[in-house]
Amino acid sequence: AERSRGCRERIMRESHVQHLVCPQTLRPLRPSVLESAGDDILDGTLTADGAEPYRIRGGIPSFVPTDVSRTQTVRSFAQKWAKHRYYLEHTRRFYTEWYLQRYGFFEIDALRGFLEGAEFILDAGTGAGRDAANLTENSDATVFAVDTAWEALEVARDRLTQPRLAFVHADLHRLPFPDEFFDLINCDQVIHHTPDPRAAFEILRRKLKPGGQICCYVYKKKAVVREFTDDYVRERISKLPVDEALAVCEAITRLGRTLAGLKVTVDVEQDIPLLGIHKGPVDLQRLFHWNVLKCFWNDEFDFFTNNIINLDWYHPEYCFRFEPSEFREWFSEGWDIQAWDVQESGISCRAKKV
Length: 354
Fold this sequence. Notes:
By secondary structure, this protein is α/β, with parallel strands linked by helices.
């Protein structure tokens, strides 16, 4: 009974299952329940004509093929989330404010007003579930939180208990939802880690209702030296087990902490277009961070969290970066851009499907 009470708030409900479809055929799925708690499915399978059955385990339906779950990038994030189980609580305030600013909401009340009337929301690449939590808490919608890394979903499931939040183990290239289903799709800081970001974006577009909106962020290409350093470090770190990669990143993180602690402002007198360096006053750590080496540091986070953020950049094999013009081209036809934000770190766009 105690296990049932604990699970009822965070597992796959029959009302959620009825919206899932086979990602290959888009046919409705039939559940076969092996273990349940009331209307909630803890363990079972989902089947459709002409397709292999999909497993529900721990209340999470899984649609990720083995060959995808074993890729380097998926395993990198899986190990990251398995190691950092308090990431959500530690970073939520900072990243929520950044999210609201980039997508043109600025205040949480504006996000709440924007979400009014939404029925179904997709958080594509939920990680530890920060955005999924914000979207659920500020709407009456059913939120489907999807990630390719099973460990991420386990961490999020154990911390987020809203009954309108459903976790799904799925790949952005093979989503188990009908076309034109969602009122909002959130894909923040995720799509650049897929094997083919543009193809993944077009799949998300198909799942969005006409008149629905998408919030999407991609990494921006950095200055010349920084791009070279990033590729150089990633080529070597991505081949390491995650513990060894974390150890390598520690020196980089300490450098970021030292530079930030100096609290020195540098006045770059003139643009250096050849190197992508911009004029103006800039903190020494930021100057180094944006132009030489990603050495993230935020005094609000502990050392391990800062180090994990640097690992998050260097360890995944797939890490595409874009010029603003490249990303904007994704929205050139069939979209009405509502908010557009370009920062050194990345490019954010909120757009309505027309």
